[in-house]
Amino acid sequence: MFSRPTRPTLQRAAFRTLRAVTLFAALGASAAHADTTLDRIHQRHKIVIGVILSGPPFGSLDPATQKPLGFNIDLANDVAKRLGVDVELTPVQPSNRVQFLQQGKVDALIANMEVTKERAELFSYPPTPFEEIGGALITRKDSGIKTWNDVRGKPVCVSQGSNYTKPLAEEYGAQVKAFRGQPESLLALRGNNCVAAVHVAPTLRLLVARNPDWKDYTIPVSNELIPSPSVIWVRKGETDTQSALEKIVQDWHRSGWLIDVEHKNGMQPSQAVLDLHAKYKAQGA
After folding, report:
1. CB-based contact 83:47 (threshold 8 Å)
2. Are 124 and 236 in contact (CB under 8 A)?
3. Which residues cross the membrane (predicted)?
4. What is the model's pTM?
5. What string of pLDDT tens digits covers the 285 residues of the chain?
6. Angle at 231 between CA 72 and CA 99, to 5 degrees
7. Which of 36, 97, 196, 225 shows the smallest number of beta carbons within 10 Å?
8. How far apart are CA 114 and CA 110, in angstroms?
9. How far apart are CA 88 and CA 46, in angstroms?
10. Is 163 helix (H, G, I), strand (E, B) or coil?
11. What is the CATH number of domain 133-227?
């Protein structure tokens, strides 16, 4: 003889069923979300990558063709090639690159955006970096600035959203002035609105080495500010895209392709890149 389920028993059973259905739906939605970007890239046969065109070696416009060129451009083009799709390059600024990725205007960022705790909480990225880059300080030769400590209490130009803002202000006591991008920041430096500017080291080193307009300026401090991993950024939870990009970055290191591209763009590979090349080369294909 079977007993009739009581109301509390039925309620508990219904709750367990609802909870199971909710969990299944959540997992399904999560999986669908994780696959969305890579699926869309292959369906439309195109990946949209945000890049910064603030000057050599990372990105600029060819004066003759008005087409973008540079280190980040080479990386973006090769990502598309290895995924078997076309590439659409979307110019971004330090002030809007985060929003472009959040709003889905780009599928990924290769935009001079190094890893920080705050950024890692917002976005995902392949764990293997393609470089390690820190900030350099550029100033007039007669400014009297010789060390990072010499900027204390003085105005220093950076780009909006720069990860150099916090250490400059908190560790060295600089009066940080943020501008829309690197070109505006450097223009402010030349206009004496700041005593120095801090941006990614490879750009500033090329600037003083090759551009006669900057002959009166120098990079007096040899050590870089907070050297950090440079990575490709994607939206949080897009593990399929993250995994596909991780394989690409590892192969860049394994083959030595990345080192060749850096040399092509007038860059000196960091010790981190040389170590990663040795690591993945030793592991084989």
Report:
1. yes
2. yes
3. none
4. 0.84
5. 334 444 444 333 433 433 333 333 333 334 444 448 999 999 999 999 999 998 999 999 999 999 999 999 999 999 999 999 999 999 999 989 999 999 999 999 999 999 999 999 999 999 999 999 999 999 999 999 999 999 999 999 999 999 999 999 999 999 999 999 999 999 999 999 999 999 999 999 999 999 999 999 999 999 999 999 999 999 999 999 999 999 999 999 999 999 999 999 999 999 999 999 999 999 975
6. 85
7. 36
8. 10
9. 7
10. coil
11. 3.40.190.10
**How many other C-beta atoms can be found within 10 angstroms of the C-beta atom of residue 23?**
10
Tell me the C-alpha to C-alpha distance, in Å, between residue 237 and each of 42, 73, 241, 242. Answer: 18, 25, 9, 9
Task: Yes or no: say if 235 and 123 are a contact pair by the CB < 8 Å rule.
Answer: yes
Q: How many residues does the chain have?
A: 285
Tokens for 264, please give them.
Answer: 């092509």
Q: At residue 226, what is the residue type?
A: I
How many CB atoms are located within 10 Å of the residue 52 CB? 26
3-state secondary structure of 241: helix
Strand partners of residue 158: 178
Please, which residues have CB within 8 angstroms of residue 34's CB and are 6 or more apart in sequence? 237, 238, 239, 240
Tokens of 244: 């596909």
Helix (H) or strand (E) holding 178: strand 175-179
Q: Which fold has domain 39-130+231-283?
A: D-Maltodextrin-Binding Protein; domain 2 (3.40.190)
Place of tokens 């259905």: 21
Range(s) of the chain covered by CATH 3.40.190.10: 39-130+231-283, 133-227
Burial of 95 (0-12, 13-18, 19+ CB in 10 A): middle
* 8-state DSSP, 84: T
Identify whether the C-beta of residue 269 lies closer than 8 Å to the C-beta of residue 59.
no
Q: Do residues 139 and 220 lie in contact, with contact meaning Cβ atoms separated by under 8 Å?
A: yes
Phi and psi at 109, nearest 5°, equal -120, 125
